[in-house]
Inverse folding.
């Protein structure tokens, strides 16, 4: 079956499709229309990726000429869009552009009061469209093994990666919390402690100078917005990753990196990172008790990570 999936979303939201794509791979020809950087990390699990930001895809919302891809692509059997379509315009436009295809449109996320993980929700939607997958099996597999996993090089340096940001300010603990957390790890470990990396994304650009000034030592590296092909090796070789509910946290978990996810106000049941070595700590504002909890959990994770 030739399937067109449309999910223009942020990194973490896009990665939630991966459990389903792993099950569908090899049995179906999937084209995924979405946004970078998520497309990059899912590209090996689909037949083709298409950038939703280019080629006229916005016309699905208003009507008009077909997006470039649809205008030149061979017919598909099924088109599935995960988009807000309250007035039905997207479904009507897709049906007009793909008259021989079955067209289904779903909200991008489960309702906030719906007690279901986003990845499982997406798999259930695909199953409802006739896609040959088992949502429960796909979800359980994503928890049991790293879907984006790959062994790190034995010579690769091991470090603890701290990612003190996310795309949502309300999800973030304050910068002073992260400074104290990092210093706690430094002072409680011997002189040959694992080096630390502060990973900052575009949303944290304003804090680059802050961290540079507060962490003026040769044991802490600040990495700002690495290229996609450099981000995966950094996370994969890390002894541990600590971050908020963010796309990078979901990526680290799916790579199999020991991951501590700090959930300040996100719904854990809907957004828990998927991977075999993930611990979620849900607590409000950054506090000394939270730092102690992170330290305790980190010791347990590092103790179970022979490469550290």
């Amino acid at each position: 079956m030739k399937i067109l999936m449309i999910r223009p979303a942020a990194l973490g939201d896009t990665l939630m499709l991966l459990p389903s794509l792993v099950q569908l791979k090899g049995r179906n020809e999937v084209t995924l229309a979405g946004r970078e950087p998520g497309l990059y990390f899912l590209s090996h699990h689909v037949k083709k990726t298409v950038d939703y930001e280019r080629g006229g895809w916005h016309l699905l919302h208003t009507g008009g000429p077909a997006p470039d891809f649809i205008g030149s692509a061979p017919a598909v059997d099924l088109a599935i869009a995960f988009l807000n379509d309250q007035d039905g315009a997207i479904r009507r436009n897709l049906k007009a552009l793909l008259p021989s295809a079955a067209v289904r449109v779903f909200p991008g996320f489960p309702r906030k009061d719906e007690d279901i993980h986003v990845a499982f929700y997406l798999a259930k939607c695909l199953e409802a469209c006739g896609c040959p997958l088992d949502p429960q099996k796909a979800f359980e597999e994503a928890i049991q093994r790293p879907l984006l996993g790959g062994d790190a090089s034995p010579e690769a340096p091991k470090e603890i990666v701290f990612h003190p940001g996310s795309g949502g300010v309300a999800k973030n603990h304050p910068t002073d919390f992260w400074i104290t957390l990092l210093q706690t790890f430094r002072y409680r470990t011997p002189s040959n402690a694992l080096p630390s990396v502060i990973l900052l994304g575009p949303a944290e650009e304003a804090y680059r100078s802050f961290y540079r000034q507060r962490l003026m030592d040769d044991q802490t590296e600040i990495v700002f917005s690495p290229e996609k092909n450099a981000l995966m090796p950094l996370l994969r070789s890390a002894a541990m990753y600590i971050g908020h509910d963010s796309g990078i946290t979901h990526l680290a978990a799916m790579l199999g990196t020991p991951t501590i996810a700090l959930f300040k106000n996100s719904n854990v049941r809907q957004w828990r990172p998927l991977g075999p070595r993930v611990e979620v700590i849900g607590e409000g504002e950054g506090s000394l008790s939270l730092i102690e909890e992170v330290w305790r959990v980190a010791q347990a994770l590092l103790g179970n990570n022979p490469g550290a």
